[in-house]
Prior knowledge:
Blueprint: E1 3-11, E2 16-24, E3 30-33, E4 42-50, E5 52-57, E6 59-60, E7 63-64, H1 71-82, E8 86-94, H2 98-114, E9 121-125, H3 147-153, E10 160-165, H4 172-180, E11 183-187, H5 194-203, E12 207-208, H6 224-231, E13 236-240, H7 248-257, E14 263-266, E15 279-282, E16 285-290, E17 293-296, H8 308-319, H9 323-330, H10 332-338, E18 353-356, E19 362-367, E20 370-374
Helix pairs in contact: 4-5, 5-6, 8-9
Amino acid sequence: MSQVLVAEQLFDGEQLHRDVALQVDGEGRISSVGGPAPEGAQRLRGLLAPGLVDVQVNGGGGALFNNEPTVESLVRMSRAHARYGTTGFMPTLITDEIEVMQRAADAVSAALREGVPGVLGVHFEGPHLSAPKKGTHEERFIRPLTDGELAIYARDDLGIKMVTLAPENVVPEDIRKLVDLGVRVCLGHSNADGATAAAALEAGATGFTHLYNAMSPLHSREPGMVGTALISDDAWCGLIADGHHVSPEAMILALKAKPRGKVMLVTDAMSLVGSEETSFPLFDRTVVRQGDRLTSTTGELAGSHLDMISAVRNIRDWCGVELIEALRMASLYPSQFLGFAGGKIAAGVRADLILLNGDQRVTKTWIAGQEVFSAQ
């Protein structure tokens, strides 16, 4: 059934408008923007904006994808993050056994067939990583690329496919092979020097996973992963703007160094987002939340307790980014990285929308024209 929404303010991904009528067709796509509002149209107070897109979501709503790689977990993750404006996300599986990777792939495939709201594909963060930069990943599961993993990456029923790897442990020829399979390759959890990272980009890698974190730093005589990421104009970089992973000054540096559109906000969210729980098991450890910081019992940061709209507010407040640019960093730019037609409100685009109040809190979320969250 078609519907008409009339927005007090509307951000279409590029510009702000006032008192705009939005027609959504029965297929969940925007059929028109503008024109007179028919009688009986739903009037919305606040700012209507494109839904937010998160390329790195480990869990939510009490479900961690590694612990429960099922469709039910993806449903819980979708519902939890929709409360905070996420309308598209990449379920992320960190380094694990190949059997768990296979189960995760099967769950994503089933979720896409069943139309679980917001699921775009799958992000395998590992297992082809660097042990010295493993972070909270389990070292015993870190391994080279084999035919077993390639068989998973080659599947054509997984939607958008993304793999984070350490370029010192995967040769450029294998990166080209992944790209030929339709995989978006990101570099991360790596101790590589700049030349090795640059060779991986030349082979087809297009992004850096959680810039600054778990990667070789910039030095005066060696750019490392961080320096290579900052000087590579064509590569996208994810930022975890939670105040724990990256300082405001480091985020400002990235925004100054990178071309507009190449820095995107990510959450790296764990299961506690959208949950009242304060801890969860991760392999043979426990991760504990203290405020909005997650720490493993082995001492390292273990993902985040961040949601996307909080990341938008944080980078606005801490780095002086205008709200509409912060929204682009959370919607348009990650959509462009993924090759997904999101981050815009325009005719022909899927109606993935959020409504924000004056405090930039989410009051409503729509995915494919269906209201999936309302604060009222």
